[in-house]
């Protein structure tokens, strides 16, 4: 069994079968396993993480990689199936035999392969790895299609000294596995060790079905940086993963950090959706000060904010005037986008119900409050923890600004990389 590292430094002459795959004549499928009976976190795979269903993060990366002929979710649960389809995946309804607590990933993938005999290469992507990016799977798959590997899996470099476990009362002494205590190295003097991070496992059909292995034959590993190596098993992992994915997650092809204009539906987003009547018969609404500050934060970072509704608002600190739109906001707001010579990818949009769906789909970055109906949640790219009128706008504003910070950091890194050539 040969094991080789990840690096691909140029075109190689691949076996004939692999060249056929590279020419697109074979079929490469991504398969995400998402059983409904998770023991650690109930329905973990569709629980919201940073405004997106957990499984949505890896599905978006898989679809946008443009490397797969098909992207599948293997599940036994109706709600997971609905979410999977809303994110562009096909669904493999797994049998009861491979849906038990004792069922292995290999058994489920082999069942999928038997039902899809045209599939030549399978990539098992784990739903619990939300910081996966398209370039990760693209570069790993090229190790199979261009370099002739039979299996490739993701790893991360760890700098941890490992010691033997001893049972209490055994009288046995512990000893190090990977450390000479007399010459304890500094971190910068030690390369560390490669550990599986569980993000993905590629394997050829022959390896899976004829040898019964996910890792075998000519094995290669793909090293991912630690910031992208996130795994979620229990509830305590969730808040840490949420912060990590907000900073290092993949948010789609259209980078939200280029947002220059934000539209926000006042009713249900900036307000709780209630209208108060004054003694003189005037309509009034209340605005949370945190949401008002969120709007001012956006304006301070040169993001123009357009508020729209069919009711008047008296808070001049938030909106000197409101745009009035019809039953289909897109018809009116597209005129504003065109007038400012922008595209919808430059726009952030916050809505909260069915009339907002088209704009939520169009905008480069879109969000709904946490109490929005399902039809709006399914169309949005981000679902807030906060509800309408109680901090949702502030949360979305902070999310937009975080993406701008990421963009600046990436641009700086790109300049450094380009200057090195």
Automatic annotation (TrEMBL):
It is an enzyme of class 2 (transferase). Pathway: Amino-sugar metabolism; N-acetylneuraminate metabolism. It comes from the Eukaryota. The keyword Nucleotidyltransferase applies. GO terms for molecular function: N-acylneuraminate cytidylyltransferase activity. GO terms for biological process: N-acetylneuraminate metabolic process. It catalyses: an N-acylneuraminate + CTP = a CMP-N-acyl-beta-neuraminate + diphosphate. Keywords: Nucleotidyltransferase, Transferase. Pfam families: CTP_transf_3 (PF02348). InterPro entries: CMP-NeuNAc_synthase, Cytidylyl_trans, HAD-like_sf, HAD_sf, Nucleotide-diphossugar_trans. Belongs to the CMP-NeuNAc synthase family. This is N-acylneuraminate cytidylyltransferase.
């Amino acid at each position: 069994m040969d094991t080789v590292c990840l690096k691909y430094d140029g075109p190689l002459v691949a076996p004939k079968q692999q060249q056929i795959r590279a020419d697109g004549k074979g079929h490469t499928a991504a398969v995400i396993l998402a059983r409904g009976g998770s023991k650690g976190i109930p329905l973990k795979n569709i629980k919201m993480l940073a405004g997106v269903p957990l499984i949505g993060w890896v599905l978006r990366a898989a679809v946008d990689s443009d490397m797969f002929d098909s992207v599948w979710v293997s599940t036994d649960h109706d709600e997971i199936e609905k979410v999977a389809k809303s994110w562009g995946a096909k669904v493999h309804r797994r049998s009861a035999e491979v849906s038990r607590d004792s069922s292995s990933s290999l058994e489920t993938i082999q069942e999928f392969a038997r039902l899809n005999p045209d599939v030549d290469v399978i990539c098992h992507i784990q739903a619990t790895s939300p910081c996966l990016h398209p370039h990760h799977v693209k570069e790993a798959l090229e190790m199979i299609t261009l370099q002739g590997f039979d299996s490739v899996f993701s790893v991360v470099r760890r700098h941890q000294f490992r010691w033997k476990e001893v049972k209490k009362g055994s009288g046995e002494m512990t000893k190090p596995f990977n450390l000479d205590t007399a010459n304890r190295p500094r971190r910068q003097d030690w390369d560390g060790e490669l550990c599986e991070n569980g993000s993905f496992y590629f394997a050829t059909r022959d390896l899976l079905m004829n040898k019964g292995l996910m890792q075998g034959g000519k094995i290669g590993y793909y090293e991912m940086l630690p910031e992208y190596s996130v795994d979620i098993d229990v509830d305590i992992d969730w808040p840490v993963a949420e912060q990590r994915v907000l900073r290092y997650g993949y948010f789609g092809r259209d980078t939200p950090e280029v947002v220059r204009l934000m539209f926000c539906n006042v009713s249900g987003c900036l307000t709780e959706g209630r209208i108060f009547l004054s003694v003189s018969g005037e309509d009034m609404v209340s605005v949370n000060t945190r949401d008002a500050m969120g709007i001012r934060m956006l304006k301070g970072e040169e993001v123009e904010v357009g508020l729209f509704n069919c009711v008047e608002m008296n808070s001049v600190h938030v909106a000197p005037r409101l745009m009035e739109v019809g039953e289909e906001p897109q018809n009116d707001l597209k005129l504003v986008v065109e007038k400012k010579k922008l595209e919808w990818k430059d726009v952030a949009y916050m809505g909260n119900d069915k009339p907002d769906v088209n704009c939520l789909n169009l905008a480069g970055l879109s969000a709904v409050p946490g109490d929005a109906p399902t039809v709006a949640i399914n169309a949005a790219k981000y679902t807030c923890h906060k509800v309408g009128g109680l901090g949702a706008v502030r949360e979305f504003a902070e999310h937009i600004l975080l993406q701008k910070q990421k963009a600046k950091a990436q641009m700086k890194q790109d300049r450094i990389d380009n200057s090195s050539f």
